[in-house]
Amino acid sequence: MPEISTKWTSGAVAAYRQPDPRMLAEVAAGLSAPQKELPPKYFYDHRGSELFEEITRLPEYYQTRTERTLLETWMPALISELGTRSLIELGAGSAAKSRVILSAMRRHGRTGFYVPIDVSASFLTLTAARLRHDFPGLAVEPILADITEDFTAPQELPRPALFAFLGGTIGNFYPPAAIRLLSRIRAAMSPSDRFLMGVDLRKDVGRIEAAYNDAQGVTAAFNRNMLLVLNHELGSDFDTERFSHLAFYEPVNHRIEMHLVSTTEQEVRIPGVGLLHFAEGESIRTEISCKHDAASVAELFGAAGLRIESWRSDREGLFALVTGVQA
Ligand code: AVJ
User: Fold this and answer.
1) What pLDDT does 12 receive?
2) What does the pLDDT read at residue 96?
3) From atom 4 of ligand 1, which residue's Cα is the shortest distance away?
4) CA–CA separation, 178 vs 180, rounded Å?
5) Centroid of ligand 1 to alpha carbon of 83 (angstroms)
6) Of 28, 95, 62, 107, whose CA–CA distance to 275 is shortest?
7) Is the beta carbon of 19 within 6 A of some atom in ligand 1?
């Protein structure tokens, strides 16, 4: 959390947040590239996390409910087979899905150890409190961390442990970054541990594009919220009304791209970065969401020293739950 500092100006007190230097550096680098780009982790302030929760309930957004059904179908058998005693969840969010896993662990008589890892402090705190209440006896040890940086799993976990990375969030990573993340997970694993990953699958383009262009405009609000996060954290002066939501499937790299398109020529000031110029129609790419198949997952796993142990998908082939072990 950035510190609050106070500055005295002609008798008046102005409180401002010191911008996080890493965020400032990332934003400066991303916005000076030919294709302006911002990391998707900046969607998730408290409001952004709420908007994402709303997305997961949209009729067009098939991912969350499909994954949930897969978890409900497969977790009880997997947990009993592995004898899982700890759950480490990367990018835990509201932990709605973790409940399915934790319930399965509880049904198999394990007290359990749960480590949610997330960038959003407010969601993490709320989630930890709720889970402690709903799962008495469960040890909950949240870690506030940015999984796109160096994440470290606790050393002394009751084993076997399950490392879960759900929701299809692996899709947000460019392949080299995805491989780095998977390699770090693999390094934290013991041979008896398992990795569980949710992946959104390649399918009819119309179906995928609809999931990122919902009729109610929730995804558009989620996308624009990133500019409010920047205004709040860095004191920039983005006018959200002058950027429109764009999401399309990019077939060469099998991914959704989300952009914010400047609707006019304009100038935006970011203290510590400077004045940015936008041509009319120029965009900031705010997210990629790569879609996979068994071959592309096998390739990522292989490069990270993991191998696919099981692959479960729904009848329509919308989404998959994959387990991996050290190769
Ligand atoms: C949370 C990264 C899996 O890529 O589908 C939802 C985020 N972006 N709608 C995704 C998101 C726009 C989501 N992930």
Assistant:
1) 46
2) 80
3) 289
4) 5
5) 31
6) 28
7) no
3-state DSSP assignment of residue 128: helix
Mean pLDDT of 108-113: 80
Residue 287 Cβ inside 6 Å of ligand 1? The answer reads yes
Residue of 66, 118, 169 to test ligand 1 pocket, by largest number of atoms within 8 Å of CB: 169
Three-state DSSP string of 198-243: EEEECCCHHHHHHHCCCCCCHHHHHHHHHHHHHHHHHCCCCCHHHE
pLDDT at 217: 98
Rounded to the nearest angstrom, the distance between the alpha carbon of 194 and the centre of ligand 1 is 24
Tokens 């879960």: give the residue: 164
Mean pLDDT, range 148-165, rounded to an integer: 87
DSSP state letters, 57-78? TSSS-HHHHHHHHHHHHHHHHH
More confident residue, 2 or 154: 154
Token couple for 279: 């041509």
Is 167 close to ligand 1, i.e. is its CB under 6 Å away? yes
- Mean pLDDT over 294-305 rounds to 98
Residue of 289, 291, 292, 319 best suited for mutating to test ligand 1, as the one with most atoms within 8 Å of CB: 289
Six token digits for residue 256: 């959704």
pLDDT exceeding 90 applies to what percent of the chain?
A: 80
pLDDT of 221 higher than 90: yes
